[in-house]
Amino acid sequence: MADRVTTLVRSKIMASVATRDTGPELALRKVLHRLGFRYRTNYAKLPGRPDIALPSLRKVIFVHGCFWHGHSCRWGRLPKSRTEYWAHKIQTNRARDVRALRNVRQAGWQALVVWQCQLRDIEKVIPRVLKFLRTSPKFRAGVRVRVVSS
Predict the structure, then answer these.
(1) Domain spanning 21-134 has what CATH number?
(2) Would you say 116 and 63 are in contact if contact means Cβ atoms under 8 Å apart?
(3) How many whole angstroms from its chain centre is CA 73?
(4) Closest CA to 28 of 109, 147, 110
């Protein structure tokens, strides 16, 4: 199947794909900040440069794009053109993700992966993220959290 756009246009589209500060990542960070959590972004002190790191809790959150990280959802499907290239590319990304998670855990940190498709309904993801963050002995037990839609 031929591409719908020219090679030059496709190149510009692919070059514009962000590796940090993506929409899903910003949405999650905005909610975490509103809930009182303070974090570091793209934390270079850990393998895989986690998207969100909470050093005081020794926890990290990776926000994975469904297409780029090979999620088994509707948005994670391979394109119909150049399938060999994309299959190899996505498989390499997945292998790197596994290594990063393993290395972060070996460094004594806990990790959570949140998928882009899950953040489409952020109200459903927040309880899971809060449960992950609250399981730390350093978490302040007296903090009350209320999710408010914006």
Answers:
(1) 3.40.960.10
(2) yes
(3) 15
(4) 147
Site of tokens 């270079």: 44
Nearest to 103 by CA among 149, 48, 33, 27: 48
Residue-wise pLDDT tens digits, 43-89 = 999 988 999 999 999 999 999 999 889 999 988 888 888 889 989 99
Find the largest Cα–Cα distance for the chain: 58
Show the beta-strand stretches assigned E in the chain: 40-41, 52-54, 59-64, 110-115
Give the Cβ contact number of residue 97 at 10 Å.
17
**What is the rounded distance in angstroms from the CA atom of residue 49 to the CA atom of residue 43?**
5
Spatial CB neighbours of 5, under 8 Å, sequence gap ≥ 6 = 13
Kindly list the domain boundaries of the chain, sorted by start residue.
21-134
| Stated pTM of the model | 0.80
40 φ, ψ to 5°?
-110, 150
